[in-house]
Amino acid sequence: MNVRITRSVGVVAVLYFTANFSAQTTKVKDTIAKENKIDEVVVIGYGTQKKSNVTGAIASIKASDIENAPTAGRPEQILQGRAAGISVVSNSGQPGTAATVRVRGITSFGAGSNDPLWVVDGIVVDNIGWLNQSDVENIEVLKDGASAAIYGVSAAKGVILITTKKGTKGKLGLSYNGFFGVGTVSKKLDLLNGSQYATIMNEAYLNDGLKPVLGDPSSYGTGTDWQKQIFNSAQRQSHEFSINGGNDKSTFYSSFGYYDQQGIVLRDISNYKRVNARLNSTHKVFDFLTIGQTFAYTHTRSQGVTDNGEFGGPLSSAINLDPLTPVIVTNGINNEPNFSDYVNNPNYVRDPNGNPYGISQYVSKEMSNPLAFRQTKLGGYKWSDDIIANVFAELKLNKHITFKSSANGKLSYWGEQVFTPTNYLSTANKNDINNLFRQTDKKFEWSTENTLTYQNKFGLHSLNVLLGQGYYEYNISSGQNIRFTNLPVNNWEDASFNFDIAQENKTGNAWDGKQTHKASYFARVVYDYDNKYLFTGTIRRDGSSKFGGNNHWGNFPAMSLGWNVSNENFWPENKVITSFKLRGGYGVLGNDAIDDFQFANFLVAGSNYTFGDNIIRVGYAPSTLENPNLKWERTSQLNIATDIKIFRNFDLSVDVYRKKSTDILRRVELPGYLGLINNPFRNIGDMNNDGVEVSLGYKKNWGDFGFSANGNFAYLKNEITRLEDNRPYVNFASFQTLGTVSRLQVGESYGSFYGYKNLGVFQNQAEIDAYKNANGALIQPNAKPGDFKRLDANGDGVIDEKDFVNLGNSVPKYTFGLTINMNYKNLDLMIFAQGQAGNKIFQGLRRLDIQEANYQTAILDRWTGEGTSNTIARVTRNDDNQNYTRMSDYYLQKGDYLRLKLVQLGYTLSKDAAKTIGASKIRFYVTAENLVTFTKYTGYDPEIAGTDTYGIDRAFYPQARTFLFGANVQF
Length: 971
Description:
mainly beta; 10 helices; globular
């Protein structure tokens, strides 16, 4: 099926202005007009604007704010805690892992992720992991509808504009920024040791009237500390070089970066390396013609362990394995183990010295000795190559009219190679035939854009008009893989596709992507009168091949107003409030982030059949139901705000907004007897995000001492207002044998936790007998002393799923950050803290379907007799009261935390000392990252994201506490 939309292809203009232009001075008061002021400029998408005249909600972060803040290999972490309304949460401490970025909450609960639109130098990209931090000149976050509407259907989840550094005319400049450091795990779980484990296991049997299976608990000692086996110190280094220069005709900026990070969990199979290069140049061919380009290349290579998954992997295994199993077995016959797992499975794994790794006799399924697991994963890796480029031409037609045109492209190659030897790790984790697997993918995406800008100032009036057109091609992709099995070797060093093996041991696949495209037309008018009355109006029209003929096109309008009250003649001259601006705006944005061509019904293979002769024939069946009325999600946003400067040193901004998403795209649940491979998408939901954002900055110098502080705070209330077919809720996230643990519930927050509310622990039989319904029957007839007492929420006298209540939000209500900078002569100090509050975390670290899985030491405070505990139920194997096998608030903990994220002390050598090696600046610094976290959460880390399933901790890879030494050198 070939679905296309009308297009007009041209050559475009994508702007990448820096944010340090000098703007025309504006009269505010006669006493101030004499000052030669420079008005800061911010990027607003396809252009720039004086910050004092901005009417939308735009957060701006400059190179000076981030150049001394090393990140863990991911540039998006620069944003964490630095702007109100922008949530940046680490998905994992594993090297190279992207963070989850959310702008003003959750926008959708069905159509793709809630990731914002990333635009780097005018090029729309799907991530910024390839970007060198030192190349960033400034970052602008378009938070509200009025600001982001210029990007139309792609902007509902926020837009983040990144401008990279450009060359400057004058002397050739060379700079180096690098660091080296070591990280370690900042916190370990308190798990039961050998004696404690034996005590709990025996007690669980005794509580069910069974004989204990383990001997005297004191005889087991401390046992194996599996966390000690997996955690290690990890080196991290980064080196970034840049050179820039130019003259009146041409300028250039080029850079090279190298980043290398080991993981704190089994660093042999958890690491990340990145090499990148960049060249930006601008050339003034004629007075009326300027051309330029940006080019970036990045290569990455990584290894990673299973992360945030309770079904295996070294982290989950280290938490759940019993401490009675040794790391290495040395007490068998002739030092060979003689119990059944070894005797019946000769493929058990040995260490480099030939010793068999321990296999648990108690904890099985996917759990395995993490050191044996490491041996089976050596040599495997993933890789990627990304090339991102832009060329542009700017033609100045006359004094007021400029035409720009550019072409943008991204070419990506990626893949992986894995060798899996024959091995036996556990009953559910084994491989009887070795195999070598390789996969490669490629994707090309390109776009063109044209803009025509009219700019004029006449009298007290200032006018800027933008007209634009763009065309975009996505997902021109393909891939293939190959697998060889039964290789004559069983180690990754010797594994090769050059072995001549039987044809039946070779398999391969190939595929092509589904190409999609979009056409856009957009316009914007920016007007101000005397720098007092401000207006911005935007309209964008997008057409996408993702939707059927009934809804190819969508329109996305926006408008915002501003009033610089302090520029009015009636504003009294004073030293308290020296600047006061009111602004407000409304805009409609779109979201089309669903799988391609979901409006259509395709026939797919796989429904094979026989027809009377027992011969299997390839059959085709509809993949889903057709829906030609499928359309965009629409997000409207109202923003009211004020910007105030107090005592010339304080800058205060307060924004209040309502963000309403309607016609949310989500797959509907249909009966299985329809025989569909996929449930169809429909526009079936609505959701609101209401919020308040406050930013406060202070800056002042006293002689040789300088001080600045920038703090931000945001409040968010999320509420689902409509679901498909007027359902009150749909189930959302689930966990092991508990089943559903969170819901999308009308009237409640996205992904709210639902389950039983515990009222304490029954201390004796009398309390059980006294808990009766209206008919005198026991409400919990299966309970015994020591079991949880559950709230009968609906009052029907029976404890069942109808008694599930809202137990808390997974999305934080409050986020905050504070950055303090101090300098005295050549010394400088930076302190950065961030955190969140108002959310709950589901702690799912223990495998509930493995009764012998280890516990945290909190279980030692369980109920063991009347009066011993009213918060933790007795341990039992049968669990007749479903204390631990049904969802309840027992599994939830507060997710509030405040983290001292970064402390850095730097020293800059004197200019005379720097000149001895020809440098203009030499600065050395020491940095401590993740120094301390204040929280009541008992897991590794309260910073829990998990893409769009918030707040469920399935053994997140913890972030490292790292100490770094670095240097900045400029020539």
